[in-house]
Amino acid sequence: MTSATASASRPLRQDAFVIGMIGLAHSVSHFGQLLLPPLFPWLKTAFGVGYAELGALMTVFFVMSCAVQALSGFVVDRHGALPVLFSGLLLIGVAVLGLAASQQYWQLTLCAALAGAGNGVFHPVDFTLMNRLVSENRLGHAYSVHGITGTIGWAVAPALVVPLAMVGSWRTALVCAAVVVFAITAAVWAARARLTPTPLSAPARSARAGAPVRAEHPLAFLRLPAVWVCFVFFLFYSGSMSGVQSFAPEAARQLHGIAAGVAAACITVYMVCAGCGMVLGGFLVQDPARCERIIAAGMGLAALAALALALAPLPTAAVPVLFGVMGFLVGTAGPSRDLIVKQAAPENATGRVYGVVYSGLDTGMALAPLLYGFLLDHHRPAAVWLSIACVQGLLIFTALQVRGARRTSVPAMA
Predict the structure, then answer these.
(1) Which of 260, 255, 273, 274 lies closest to 315, judged by CA?
(2) Which of 1.20.1250.20, 2.60.120.620, 3.30.420.130, 3.30.1330.130 would CATH assign to domain 11-194+222-406?
(3) Model pTM?
(4) 245 — alpha (psi -120 to 50), left (phi > 0) or beta?
(5) Domain ranges for the chain
(6) Residue 364 CB contacts under 8 Å (≥ 6 apart), including other chains
């Protein structure tokens, strides 16, 4: 019996609790990702650095996250998801406190690396737990809620730290953020007994009587083409997302002359609308055959919104509206994005596949800030938006290539 079959009869209340607690933990990952970018204007002054150096902090964060994400999938498959989850939550909390106490740029870099290490565990952990604990017919909604809670984390981060930095200091803002992380960690710890999946059954023996058991090679899943197609897709996906989160508000401010407060609000509008789009996406993804088409449609229309922000003369009120439209379209594609990975992941290698595939997210998030920071330092805000639109266009092609991905067993090693 597969884990999906085993969980098919779970009651709604149990599924809802599991989805909610995993989503709450996931919100910490996204919350931590977007604590520093809204504080760039303060950090730029406090440490005497440019946007390229500040972008490099995010590169360090996501390089570390990429490495840990790929490796943590192996740890999840071997030792279980919960110990890895709590390690990640604690690392992020400690790192945020370290950022608040930093006096020199190298200390910021070190703490960014520590936070990236904590961030790297969430996708292998979360999707392993959801696929093992949530009923098959509710997985689409589970992925939707998972994406929504991540988006809430993104939206809350600037909404918390920017006002605190304005009325107090950026250090106070980060200390308060650390308190939030530790509070959520405590809540998830209290629920740990209900988040423990039953062990998977032993690998099936050969159908031939007397045939020896063939052991799975830990790296055999890397032979599956679907894994690498999904990796490239997530690389481009995060290249677009990084630009919108970290540098697009400043690019829009320079292009359209909007106030700094309006620019900061744009990212919150984007995230809130993305969460609304994910609600719709959770219903659309009930038919798995539509996943790639949903992604292509959402990203194509989002690219048009990015082009409008790059090229059209816009009144101040239209800028946050276009941010919201783009967020809604990208959010609609979110649950479909996660489901294509499940379709490519053999059950006996879930943690490893999610770890490698979602490390594409971190790779893109590590590389993209270098480009966008360079463009802003050279006073090319329109090029930031054009780059975002180009990457979203590439996602259309990549999503359609994923159509060929199909779920297979991991090759065994004699």
Answers:
(1) 255
(2) 1.20.1250.20
(3) 0.72
(4) alpha
(5) 11-194+222-406
(6) 62, 234, 235, 236, 237, 238, 239, 241, 242
Instruction: Please report where in the chains the tokens 């088409």 appear, as a residue.
Output: 293
Residue 57 has which token pair? 């902090």
Q: What backbone torsions phi and psi does residue 215 show, to the nearest 5 degrees?
A: -80, 145
Four-CA torsion 390, 59, 339, 144, nearest 10 degrees: -100
Q: How far apart are CA 281 and CA 279, in angstroms?
A: 5
- Contact predicate 151/30, CB 8 Å: yes
Give helix 122-133 / helix 51-79 axis angle, nearest 10°: 40
Structure tokens at 179: 């308190």
DSSP letter assigned to residue 288: G
Exposure string over 43-60, b if 16+ CB within 10 A, otherwise e: beebbebebbbbbbbbbb
From first to last of its 414 residues, the chain has per-residue pLDDT tens of: 344 444 456 778 888 999 999 999 999 999 998 899 889 889 989 998 887 788 889 889 988 988 888 788 788 878 888 999 999 999 999 999 999 999 999 999 999 999 999 998 998 899 889 888 888 778 878 888 888 898 788 888 988 998 999 998 999 999 999 999 999 999 999 998 888 876 655 444 344 344 444 555 666 666 777 777 788 888 888 888 888 877 888 899 899 988 877 887 888 888 889 888 888 887 887 777 778 888 889 999 999 999 999 998 889 889 999 999 999 999 898 888 777 776 666 665 566 777 777 777 778 877 887 788 888 888 889 999 999 999 988 888 887 776 665 544 444 433
